[in-house]
């Protein structure tokens, strides 16, 4: 028979390790987030449905976004064992300058809608962690205020070409004067995609106070208090707008732009030019021949043309077509640091991450954005170690098998 005894205090004492009490409710929430999916679930609880759906949703049946995520999920890694991976370097080079991680924060519109701290919080985190941040034309903090919030950050400005070319030229000049390093021209929005969640939610900029939104306010009081008691929404590119996102895009953006217009853009912008929204090998070659310094394989996070090509699937063929003279970045569907490692192994010079940090922003403001980057960087480092690689340059196509 098993003999039992009363445990002695000196035997129990090593087992009693009470967890330190975290006083901040925001920090308590974020401590529980181990993945970007965890941040998404917190964000969904804390944010009005229409705002969360604007961030989380995609176009029409959301097939493009779903396919992008499924492709990342279906990747099979091929690790090499018995390698010395005690020290791992996650840094890489983007546009000739060092980035501490192989990704940048993508441009996102209406960021102060997700959380009142908005773009200032995001650019401060980018500065702290040593990665680039791209401010959107449709951002809700001015070009100059973002620059002032993080003077040492690597800042890019994302441009949509407007019907009013003079207004677009003014934005470019303001970005240059404020010290922005690169211009990101988005080319996959000649007209607005059909984002049906926004239509069903009656989502407008800013939110319209209706019976539905007042009821929602009762369920998310902190978000509404922050919106109504902080500075009114301002935009990087216009003073105000009253209407839907689709109406704004169709009213302001120029659907007549062609590759020939890149010459006009080059005449007013003298720094690196990134062209975002490439979805075919032929277009990649055309844009590179027209003088782009980098291209982004992107279907706008699935928010424009549904059933568009999956950017990751295009990557090997695009790299073979354009060679090493032009940097190639990838976005859409990235929810894990392992996704970034896989894309880099398949030839991407870096990735752009959007929703992942917005979930963090909605979950906990600036601290939530920092938590998102901590999660991604930990996943990147661990995946590289388990693959047997010590540097980003050691990642090769042989490490990844696409389904």
UniProtKB/TrEMBL annotation:
<feature type="binding site">
    <location>
        <position position="298"/>
    </location>
    <ligand>
        <name>FMN</name>
    </ligand>
</feature>
<feature type="active site" description="Proton acceptor">
    <location>
        <position position="300"/>
    </location>
</feature>
<dbReference type="GO" id="GO:0010181">
    <property type="term" value="F:FMN binding"/>
</dbReference>
<keyword id="KW-0285">Flavoprotein</keyword>
<feature type="binding site">
    <location>
        <begin position="107"/>
        <end position="109"/>
    </location>
    <ligand>
        <name>FMN</name>
    </ligand>
</feature>
<feature type="binding site">
    <location>
        <position position="160"/>
    </location>
    <ligand>
        <name>glyoxylate</name>
    </ligand>
</feature>
<feature type="binding site">
    <location>
        <position position="300"/>
    </location>
    <ligand>
        <name>glyoxylate</name>
    </ligand>
</feature>
<dbReference type="InterPro" id="IPR008259">
    <property type="entry name" value="FMN_hydac_DH_AS"/>
</dbReference>
<dbReference type="InterPro" id="IPR013785">
    <property type="entry name" value="Aldolase_TIM"/>
</dbReference>
<dbReference type="InterPro" id="IPR012133">
    <property type="entry name" value="Alpha-hydoxy_acid_DH_FMN"/>
</dbReference>
<comment type="similarity">
    <text>Belongs to the FMN-dependent alpha-hydroxy acid dehydrogenase family.</text>
</comment>
<protein>
    <submittedName>
        <fullName>Alpha-hydroxy-acid oxidizing protein</fullName>
    </submittedName>
</protein>
<feature type="binding site">
    <location>
        <position position="303"/>
    </location>
    <ligand>
        <name>glyoxylate</name>
    </ligand>
</feature>
<feature type="binding site">
    <location>
        <begin position="354"/>
        <end position="355"/>
    </location>
    <ligand>
        <name>FMN</name>
    </ligand>
</feature>
<feature type="binding site">
    <location>
        <position position="195"/>
    </location>
    <ligand>
        <name>glyoxylate</name>
    </ligand>
</feature>
<feature type="binding site">
    <location>
        <position position="136"/>
    </location>
    <ligand>
        <name>FMN</name>
    </ligand>
</feature>
<keyword id="KW-0560">Oxidoreductase</keyword>
<feature type="binding site">
    <location>
        <position position="186"/>
    </location>
    <ligand>
        <name>FMN</name>
    </ligand>
</feature>
<feature type="binding site">
    <location>
        <position position="158"/>
    </location>
    <ligand>
        <name>FMN</name>
    </ligand>
</feature>
<feature type="binding site">
    <location>
        <position position="276"/>
    </location>
    <ligand>
        <name>FMN</name>
    </ligand>
</feature>
<dbReference type="GO" id="GO:0016614">
    <property type="term" value="F:oxidoreductase activity, acting on CH-OH group of donors"/>
</dbReference>
<dbReference type="Pfam" id="PF01070">
    <property type="entry name" value="FMN_dh"/>
</dbReference>
<dbReference type="InterPro" id="IPR000262">
    <property type="entry name" value="FMN-dep_DH"/>
</dbReference>
<keyword id="KW-0288">FMN</keyword>
<dbReference type="InterPro" id="IPR037396">
    <property type="entry name" value="FMN_HAD"/>
</dbReference>
<feature type="binding site">
    <location>
        <position position="54"/>
    </location>
    <ligand>
        <name>glyoxylate</name>
    </ligand>
</feature>
<feature type="domain" description="FMN hydroxy acid dehydrogenase">
    <location>
        <begin position="28"/>
        <end position="403"/>
    </location>
</feature>
């Amino acid at each position: 028979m098993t003999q039992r005894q009363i445990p002695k205090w000196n035997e129990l004492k090593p087992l009693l390790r009470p967890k330190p009490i975290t006083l901040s409710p925001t920090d308590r929430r974020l401590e529980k987030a181990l993945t970007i999916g965890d941040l998404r679930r917190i964000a969904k609880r804390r944010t009005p449905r229409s705002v969360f759906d604007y961030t989380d949703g995609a176009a029409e049946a959301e097939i493009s976004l779903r396919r992008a995520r499924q492709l990342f999920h279906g990747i099979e890694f091929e690790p090499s064992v018995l390698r010395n991976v005690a020290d791992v370097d996650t840094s890489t080079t983007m546009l000739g300058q060092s980035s501490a991680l192989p990704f940048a924060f993508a441009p996102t519109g209406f960021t102060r809608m997700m959380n009142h701290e908005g773009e200032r919080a995001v650019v401060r985190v980018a500065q702290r962690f040593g990665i680039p941040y791209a401010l959107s034309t449709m951002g809700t903090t001015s070009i100059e205020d973002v620059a002032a919030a993080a003077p040492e950050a690597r800042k890019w400005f994302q441009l949509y070409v407007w019907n009013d070319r003079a207004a677009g030229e003014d934005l470019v000049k303001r970005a240059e004067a404020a010290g922005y390093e690169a211009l990101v021209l988005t080319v996959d929005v000649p007209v607005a995609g059909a984002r049906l969640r926004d239509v069903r939610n009656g989502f407008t900029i800013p939110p319209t106070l209706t019976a539905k939104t007042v009821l929602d306010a009762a369920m998310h009081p902190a978000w509404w208090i922050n919106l109504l008691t902080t500075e009114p929404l301002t935009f990087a590119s216009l003073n105000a707008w009253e209407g839907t996102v689709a109406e704004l895009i169709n009213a302001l953006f120029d659907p007549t732009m062609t590759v020939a217009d890149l010459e006009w853009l080059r005449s007013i912008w003298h720094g690196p030019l990134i062209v975002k929204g490439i979805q075919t090998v032929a277009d990649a070659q055309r844009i590179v021949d027209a003088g782009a310094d980098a291209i982004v394989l992107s279907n706008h996070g699935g928010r424009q043309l549904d059933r568009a090509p999956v950017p990751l699937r295009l990557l090997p063929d695009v790299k073979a077509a354009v060679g090493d003279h032009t940097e190639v970045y990838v976005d859409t569907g990235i929810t894990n640091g392992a996704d970034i490692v896989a894309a880099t192994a398949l030839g991407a010079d870096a990735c752009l991450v959007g929703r992942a940090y917005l979930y963090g922003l909605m979950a906990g403001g600036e601290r939530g954005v920092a938590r998102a980057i901590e999660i991604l960087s930990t996943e990147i480092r661990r995946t590289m170690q388990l693959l047997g690689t010590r540097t980003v340059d050691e990642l090769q196509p042989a490490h990844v098998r696409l389904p």
